Amino acid sequence: SRRNISATLTLSNMAEEEVAAMAEDEVAVELSAEAAEEVAEAVVDDIAEVEGALLAGADEEEIAKLEAEMGGVVEGLVAAEEEAAAGAAAAAAAAGVDEPAEDPLAPMDELEASLADVGVEDDDHLAGIDVEEHLKDSVSGSWLLKRLLDRDEDENAPPGKKRKHEDPVKDEKVKALLTKWNMLTDLGVKHVLDQSSIEDLDDLSKSGYVPDRFNPMKSATELFGRYIQEMREKSMPGGAACDVVNAFKHRWKLGLAADRPLRILTHKELRYVFNNYDGTKELTEVIEEAKAAEADEDLQTINAVPSAMGVPAIGRFNRLELIDPVADAAVFGDANLTFAIKLVRQRKALGHAGRVIATTFEELETLRERYKEIDDSIATLEEHYAEVYHGVDCTKIAIDPRFKGMENCLGAVYYNFPHSGAIQGFFDGHPIVNWRHENLMRLFFRALRSFMKPGGVVKVASNMGAVGVRYSYIVGSAIENEFLHTETMPFLEWHIHRYGRSYGDKRDIYKRPDAVNNQSYNAQAADRDMVYCFTYAPSGEPLPPQNVRLPPSLKTLEGCVDGPFKHLTGVAKANMAKQMHQRFITEISGTHVG
Asked: What is the pTM of this model?
């Protein structure tokens, strides 16, 4: 035993002398703190091994003496490590090399903590991304999604880096429901449950609902996904038309008794109530104040015709695009740019001075393959002093250099019929692919926050019965990011609704060339199309981290029995799962597939 102790101390002293010598030598300039730490850890491990072997046979006096000697060795190693790090820093300063940048994830601690239950740790998910500090929150959700998918695909990733779930209460509730339904092996249903909140799980337990495993048309996963979405939507205003009074009542949880007093108010009075009611006073008191208030004589559009009936007067602002005349407006996802043309002509007719920024998701080469008129459309926009950007991902404008310096500049934003792209074999509402549509809206509204002017308007057109980008995704994502839902108006009542609709994918090559006035687009009933209108009303307080709907893991895809996986087994099924998983990564990276 004493020979072992002597050998260990000799080894420790040699390591100490070696590190100290390197620190004094010129080579120490290139020695990093990490290398010194590895030497220290190796020696400490050797010491711990011998210490454990001796505890059984050595007396207390010998152990105390040994520990004192070991402590001196470790202190010497720490001092050598600090000296080496100081030497490297001094050499870097002398060479004119900047000190290491501040950890880019420092402001993301709250976001990382909120995603700890899925295995997201403090890491370099924004490393190499050129984004200013105040804009990091705008893109963090997209890059975290990509990192989760990358980790799923990395077979060599350590267990700590894999996606995991550490909420024992939620896990027990999920397991109890799967056991109750006799569906413990259904990874699709489990994926939907894992994405549900504790409140959703409690409601499911009380409801007596059981997924239908024998439906001849749809799988249990798809039916269950739709059921839980509809369950969440019960607390929302609905996807159909909702005028300004109904939207206001829903926001403040006002009952039917508030309806008539609001509807009989004039334009001046109703706008006063909308601007001043905050729930601290009775509604009737605010209405009396509105009636007593004098009309604002400031020559602004919002003060026009103060004696007109309030509901139709305010509704006309949304229908006629009576927006801020000097603020910029942006159009996202306008595949063939025909909507942007309608907008610039409308703004010109109204005498607006603000510019229009028209964007497409695809690059110009792809657009020329799909739309023969695209070059003429671009020329028309430029004649109206509009700017046209191609290859714009509306969820990542914070890292798009073309939007640099546009913070707090946008007074109006338009996004018509958003969609994340179809995946062959799956309906848009299937939970395996539907998370893409929900995240599109969540990330879109979070990205807009830094670029919108307070009071700016956002309009998102969609079909009230859409199962891809559901109306609840649009309204819910907007509210999460401090955009007030002010109205849902029928699309056909919108003054600029007559533009050339398109699918926005490869189908436009043979289904929609040279379409005029929406005549060739019959994919959905026009009378069910709605325009969801919002106003940006920031509170000034920091928002919680952006919620995102997590994608299915590679394991869940491999266990899927729906869509393109239905008739696949073995290697073919595994390959299909990897291909779809890679497609998810490609889409999150900002590349359109389809």
From this structure: 0.75
Label residue 351 left, alpha or beta by phi (over 0 means left) and psi (-120 to 50 means alpha): left
Position 235 scores a pLDDT of: 87
Cα gap 311→271, rounded to integer Å: 9
* pLDDT for residue 130: 59
Burial of 430 (0-12, 13-18, 19+ CB in 10 A): buried
**pLDDT at residue number 132:** 65
Residue 137 is predicted with a pLDDT of 66
pLDDT of residue 61: 56
Q: How far is CA 272 from CA 250, 264, 276, 304, 407, in A?
A: 18, 14, 6, 13, 29
For residues 118 and 148, is the Cβ–Cβ distance under 8 A?
Answer: yes
- For tokens 């950007």, the residue is 389
How far is the C-alpha of 365 from the C-alpha of 326, rounded, in Å? 33
Helix residue spans in 406-515 (DSSP H): 431-448, 471-480, 508-511
User: Whole-angstrom distance between the N-terminal and C-terminal Cα of the chain?
Assistant: 71
Residues 207 and 198: their CA atoms lie apart, in Å, by 14
How many Å apart are CA 147 and CA 122, to the nearest integer?
Answer: 12
Are 31 and 88 within 8 A, CB to CB?
yes
Helix, strand, coil percentages in the chain from 3-state DSSP, rounded to 5:
55, 10, 40
Q: Which residue matches tokens 């699918």? A: 503
Predicted pLDDT of residue 65: 54
Cα–Cα dist 434/567, whole Å: 21
Residue 519 confidence (pLDDT) = 52
Q: Which regions in the chain score pLDDT beneath 50?
A: 1-36, 39-40, 43-44, 46-58, 63, 66-67, 70, 73-74, 77-78, 81, 85, 88, 91-126, 156, 160, 513-514, 517-518, 594
Where does 336-424 show beta strands of DSSP type E? 356-359, 387-389, 410-416
Q: Give me the pLDDT at residue 54, please.
A: 39
Which pLDDT score is estimated for 590?
57
Tokens of 369: 């393959």
- 483 touches 534 (CB < 8 A): yes
Burial class (CB in 10 A: 0-12, 13-18, 19+), 321: buried
Residue 512 CB contacts under 8 Å (≥ 6 apart), including other chains: 500, 501, 502, 503, 520, 521
Write the pLDDT tens digit of every residue in 285-298. 999 999 999 988 77
CB atoms within 10 A of CB 564: 16
Q: Choose among 545, 434, 415: nearest CA to 139.
A: 545
Confidence (pLDDT) at 547: 82
Angle between helices 136-153 and 431-448 in degrees, nearest 10: 150
CA distances from 380 to 94, 335, 339, 385, 387 (A): 57, 15, 12, 9, 11
- Chain CA centroid to CA 83, Å: 44
How far is Cα 441 from Cα 120, in angstroms, rounded to an integer?
22
